[in-house]
Design a protein that fits this description.
The protein is an alpha/beta fold and about 350 residues long. It folds into two domains: about 55 residues, DNA polymerase, domain 1 (Orthogonal Bundle), CATH 1.10.150.530; about 260 residues, Aldolase class I (TIM Barrel, Alpha-Beta Barrel), CATH 3.20.20.70. The chain is built from twelve helices and twelve strands. The strands form two sheets. It has a ten-stranded mixed beta sheet with strand order 1-2-3-4-7-8-9-10-11-12, with helices on one face. The chain starts with 7 loop residues before the first helix and ends in a 21-residue tail after the last strand. Bound molecules: iron/sulfur cluster (SF4). The site of iron/sulfur cluster has 13 residues, from helix 4.
């Protein structure tokens, strides 16, 4: 049993089933998420026999070892965590003045095969458990000493392809008795898994939704993102509109700018046509080089032209500030090796 996969209520039920009083679960939950300890020994207000009992039963606190870490000049740090089965997974700390963000992973590898993505080149290995998801921001808060107040599910993997574990992790991370990070400070990014978007629209946790778009017509998107053949643009945008009307929340569309591929005037026109009148925001991302890819980044002028065109059409657009690019931790660059 890994306790980091349990919500506070589930932890209480688990300990009750072992014959322990409910208040013990409050104590243990606080030790894990407030004091962030990694050993039973550290839980000094629990009776020694109880700590030995839980340890002997093999109850795990789910702390992950850091296999490697790389820091860039701006303070971004990429961590490679070791998992119990020998796999590894990456998460990135992105500090700003008032915002301390962790970009976390939801799968080892990814089965979506987006052409511009380093993780996609590896293929799907396995889903992460809720504990393995929760542990990434928790461990990074210990390692950096920072109060993490913003999370983005934009690391390795497609979050909505591991829906139940993701939502369980959100519940645990959101719990005010634990890390207490509000759902509105958590962003889930998807390549466009329509059933997942439909489920998310009906959840009590109002996380932010980001769609990795990267192409504004089906032919281009089929080429860049094979998932588009299963969930093409028309039903995808319909699911987005339904999400907005149910939640009254703005959606972010991410659009990686790739030279000569999706940055032509016709692409801009298609994008404007697709998103006009929607409650949305477009985030243009200068393409980050990945191994074995011939794609190149669009020129600065082209990116600015794209942004200006969208803003002129009343589609609020920003160009993503580049973070982590020097340590291969930028969008689409994570591949679970800790370095490139
Ligand atoms: S961009 Fe996201 S969904 Fe696409 S292959 Fe990479 S990790 Fe998977």
């Amino acid at each position: 049993m890994n306790l980091k996969s349990l919500s506070s209520e589930e932890l209480a039920d688990y300990l009750t089933a072992l014959g322990l009083p409910k208040y013990r679960s409050n104590q243990i939950f606080a030790w894990i998420y407030r004091r962030k300890v990694c050993s039973w020994e550290a839980m000094t207000d629990l009776p020694l026999e109880l700590r030995r009992f839980l340890e002997d039963k093999g109850v795990s606190l789910g702390c992950l070892p850091v296999v490697s870490q790389v820091r860039d000049a701006g303070g971004a740090v990429k961590y490679l965590f070791g998992l119990d089965d020998g796999e590894t997974v990456e998460a990135v700390y992105l500090p700003e003045a008032n915002r301390k963000t962790v970009c976390f992973s939801t799968q080892v590898g990814c089965g979506m095969g987006c052409l511009f993505c380093a993780t996609g080149q590896r293929g799907m290995v396995r889903n992460l458990t809720p504990a393995e998801i929760v542990e990434q921001p928790l461990r990074i808060s210990v390692l950096t000493g920072a109060r993490i107040n913003s999370l983005v599910a934009m690391g390795q993997g497609e979050p909505l392809a591991n829906y139940d574990s993701l939502l369980k992790a959100v519940e645990i991370i959101n719990d005010p008795r634990g890390m207490g990070i509000g759902a509105r400070h958590i962003t889930v990014s998807t390549c466009g898994i329509i059933p997942g978007i439909e489920r998310l629209a009906r959840e009590k946790y109002q996380v932010n939704l980001a769609i990795s778009l990267h192409g504004a017509d089906d032919q281009l998107r089929d080429y860049l993102m094979p998932i588009n053949r299963k969930y093409p643009l028309e039903p995808l945008l319909e699911a987005c509109r339904d999400y907005i009307s149910r939640t009254n929340r703005r959606i972010t569309f991410e659009y990686t700018m790739i030279d000569g591929i999706n940055d032509r005037p016709s692409d801009l026109a298609n994008l404007i046509k697709l998103l006009s009148g929607m409650l949305c925001h477009v985030n243009l991302i200068p393409f980050n080089p990945v191994p074995n890819s011939e794609f190149r980044r669009s020129g600065k002028e082209r990116i600015q032209k794209f942004a200006a065109g969208l803003n002129r059409a009343h589609i609020k657009t920003t160009v993503r500030k580049e973070r982590g690019g020097t340590l291969a931790a930028a969008c689409g660059q994570l591949q679970g090796k800790g370095s490139l």
